[in-house]
Write a structure and sequence with these properties.
Aminopeptidase, 13 strands, alpha/beta, MurNAc-LAA_cat, single chain, 2 domains, N-acetylmuramoyl-L-alanine amidase, six-stranded mixed beta sheet
Length: about 425
């Protein structure tokens, strides 16, 4: 069954060198009052997590590419030797191979060969077909594909089938040029016992003797039918490989939108933080509604409330889990007794589920990075166990978009155009982190 390996796409976390990660030690913060909430130590976000599978894949691919480069260099040195021109070919006599082979219009034969006249004519005709049909290009492309997709067994079957078809074509056209089929068959038998040929070349001795003899004595219609069957099988395997070897975990290839629940904090009787006659519940509701208006084929945005109504935390969590979202963002505004305190903060829950934890931390990092671009002065990300991010079954972020107690942040948060821009930057951050 294909594929045997799956590779994640678009999972690297963008660089966030401008984000300050510090320990939360303030005891007089006025963040939402929630019982039994603890804030963890700051963490250093590593944007690139080493994947052992990818390391092994990279090392093997590198070794194969080195081997391919070495073989090309070996052939290049051989082509610098003296040659004689015979028809379409440049004939080069070498000592490190006892096989006949060709690379484009260069033909390599053993220096101390003992070919009869019939054998010599057969191999010249055979290698001339390889040269004129540009079979070397196929071989080079197959080698490159093998370096990249070595883990997929179908690439090796495909390579074997193509090389076999090259020999069948060369045999059939050589005999069609007027060479006696019996003499040609005897040449295949006499030269088919050799073991080593120059890498990346088309070789007279390359394919199994039995198959070539059978193909030579079949009718042309049978040859065509078998070739057609081989091509059909190759196309089938290629289709399986193309459509199943890669899986995008963010559904970017499947066309399915990323489902995101935006939780506008507080509401109704719970106004949240209030400062300069501005209530947190109103600001986050406006931003939540703006975000919902951006919902499209890439992001399906669902909100926990669309008006000024109170919903308990348990009711919110139940609603969110019923949606089975890919991401949850609970939007809040911060407050502090120190009126100079400003900027954005993101909290994520350090879950035992590594995938959920790493996704939450990644989204936290990218979202605060996006909001920094919206002219907030600084940003922090911290682990915490707020109920709204702890009890949901999806990656989740509690996002504090500025301090209402800071006059500069308050002015931004109370401006309708700035609220729309904040919503747009959050939307862009989700797309960036998800690879949509």
């Amino acid at each position: 069954m294909a594929p045997f390996l799956e590779f994640e796409l678009f999972k690297a976390v963008p660089s966030i060198t401008q984000i300050q990660l510090d320990k939360f030690t303030e005891t007089d913060a006025i963040i939402d009052t929630v019982d039994n909430v603890t804030i963890g130590e700051e963490v250093t976000v590593n944007p690139y997590r080493a994947n052992p599978v990818m390391i092994i894949y990279g090392l093997i691919s590198l070794l194969l590419i080195i081997r391919f480069s070495r073989n090309l260099h070996q052939i290049y040195k051989l082509t610098r030797l003296e040659y004689e021109i015979i028809g379409h070919l440049k004939l080069i006599k070498i000592e490190d191979s006892n096989m006949v082979s060709s690379f484009f219009n260069y033909m390599f034969i053993p220096k101390q060969h003992t070919f009869s006249r019939e054998d010599y004519e057969s191999v010249i005709a055979h290698e001339t077909v390889h040269s004129k049909e540009l079979h070397t290009i196929d071989i080079i492309l197959l080698e490159l594909l093998s370096c990249v997709f070595w883990f997929n067994p179908f690439i090796w079957l495909y390579k074997k089938a193509v090389l076999q078809n090259h020999e069948f074509i060369a045999d059939e056209k050589s005999v069609s040029s007027g060479i006696n089929i019996e003499n040609y068959s005897n040449t295949i038998i006499s030269l088919g016992q050799k073991d080593y040929r120059v890498p990346l070349t088309s070789g007279f001795n390359f394919i199994q003797i039995k198959n070539r003899i059978i193909m030579l004595h079949q009718s042309k219609s049978s040859v065509f039918k078998r070739t057609l069957n081989i091509i059909s099988v190759i196309l089938l395997f290629t289709g399986i490989f193309v459509f199943s070897s890669c899986k995008n975990l963010d559904d970017t290839l499947s066309g399915e939108p990323l489902v995101v629940v935006i939780d506008a904090g507080h509401g109704g009787k719970d106004s949240g933080n209030t400062s300069f006659n501005v209530s947190e519940k109103d600001i986050v509701l406006n931003i939540s509604n703006y975000l919902q208006s951006l919902s499209d084929e890439k992001l399906k945005i669902i909100t926990t409330r669309t008006d000024d109504t109170f919903t308990s935390l348990d009711e919110r969590i139940t609603f969110i889990n019923n949606q089975k979202p890919d991401l949850v963002i609970s939007v809040h505004c911060n407050a502090h007794s120190n009126l100079e305190q400003s900027g954005v903060e993101a909290y994520y829950y350090e879950s035992e589920n590594f995938e959920r934890y790493s996704e939450s931390m990644k989204y936290s990092s990218v979202l605060v990075s996006a909001l920094i671009r919206q002219s907030f002065d600084n940003a922090k990300i911290k682990p915490a166990n707020f109920k709204i991010i702890k009890d949901v079954n999806s990656p989740a972020v509690l996002l504090e978009i500025g301090y209402l107690t800071n006059s500069i942040d308050n002015e931004k948060l109370n401006d309708l155009e700035q609220q729309q821009e904040i919503a747009q930057f959050i939307y862009n951050g989700i797309l960036e982190a998800s690879g949509k």
